[in-house]
Amino acid sequence: MTRPHENLAPRPGRRPHSSSPGAPRPAATVAPSAGPAGVAPAAVAAAPAAAARPAHRRRRPAGPWRRGRTPAALALLTALALAGHRKVPGLGVNLGSLWESALPWAGLVVPAVLLAAAVRRAPAPACAALVPAVVWAAVFGPLLLGGGPAPGGGAGLTVVTHNVSAENPDPDGTARSLLAAHPDLIALEEVTDAALPAYQRVLDPELPHHARTGTVALWSRYPVTDSRRLTIDPGWSRSLRAEVQGPGGPLAVYVVHLASVRLTVSGFATGHRNRNLAALGQALDEEPLRRVLLLGDLNTAAGDRELGPLTSRLSSAQDTAGDGFGFTWPSAFPLARIDHVMTRDLPATAAWTLPATASDHRPAAARLKA
């Protein structure tokens, strides 16, 4: 009698047993399988291969301290260029001069880097932003902690310099706004022949002594005993030297308007202005009076290294006694201080800028010990 299980056919997928121990076994065949639902057989076969790849070849997500390396590098580079701004090379395009002209605005890198750190959720640039912030505060902190404008009257001199613009549509209004500061001396640049009568009409009753050379002029409360053209540029008549009998004795007053700077395809064109500065420095070396006051549009930002011929001989009223940066140009949104009050043996007690007029510059004012 045959038992039921001995007549059972081989199950699908199982190899049949051979009755002969030495007989070769047939090759096993496996039916294609769809694998998990919705996954192609090729994907199933590739999965073990992907799992077998070396771990070091798999891309790992960057940690928080590895994010934001570019803004962090920008912050550190800015701090280095700010601290060592005198070492920034010109590279044939006066890059160093341009950088120093815009130096106060280097602080804008700090909020920009902090914003990038917040967007990327990266601590590295946030920490790096502290470096330029500290350097900027060390460089410009003393300017921002200066005093405000001193009241008029009393011992001393209140002086104003203003590039009134040759295209000024309201010279009368401009002159009246300058008198609101109760000045003892007013220096004007870009005074045209057509506008001169308007300035005289407003200023002469208050400041009866005046001198003019070309497009620069000086009005004074005190006698002007001598005035002449200052030859620092043979081709132009934009500077004068006058001798004023002030309350503390005579002083030499220079009113100057130096050559403009141009941005050209070859870079920051400063050659003409720099020659003016060198000639002005030589004139100051030859000045016989001990007390000197220089007023005017120097077309040179306060931090520019090219201002060296003057800063090595004179003191800036804004730097020593000013409140803030004292930006004067352009009038609508001042970006730089190119209008200056500079002195020798006339210490400044305050320096400030006056409200905007119809000019493209703002007036600069200072109070000096007489």
Task: Describe the fold and architecture.
The protein is an alpha+beta fold and 370 residues long. It has 11 helices and 14 strands. The radius of gyration is 39 Å and the shape is elongated. The model is unreliable at 4-8 (pLDDT under 50).
Compose a concise summary of this entry.
The chain is α+β, with helices and mostly antiparallel strands and 370 residues long.
Task: Present the secondary structure layout.
Layout: H1 41-51, H2 69-83, H3 95-101, H4 109-120, H5 123-128, H6 130-144, E1 157-163, H7 171-179, E2 185-189, H8 196-203, E3 209-213, E4 216-220, E5 224-229, E6 239-246, E7 249-257, E8 262-264, E9 267-269, H9 271-285, E10 292-297, H10 308-311, E11 315-316, H11 317-321, E12 339-344, E13 348-353, E14 364-368
| Rg over C-alpha atoms, rounded to the nearest angstrom | 39 Å
Computed structural class = alpha+beta
Strand order of the largest sheet: 3-4-2-1-14-13
Query: Beta-strand level of the residues, as a percent range?
Result: 15-25%
How would a textbook summarize the main sheet?
6 strands, mixed
Overall mean pLDDT stands at: 86
Our measurement of the CA-to-CA distance between the termini, rounded to an integer number of angstroms, reads: 140 Å
Low-pLDDT runs: 4-8
Our count of helices gives 11
Helix content: 25-40%
Number of distinct beta strands: 14
Silhouette: elongated
Order of helices and strands: HHHHHHEHEHEEEEEEEHEHEHEEE
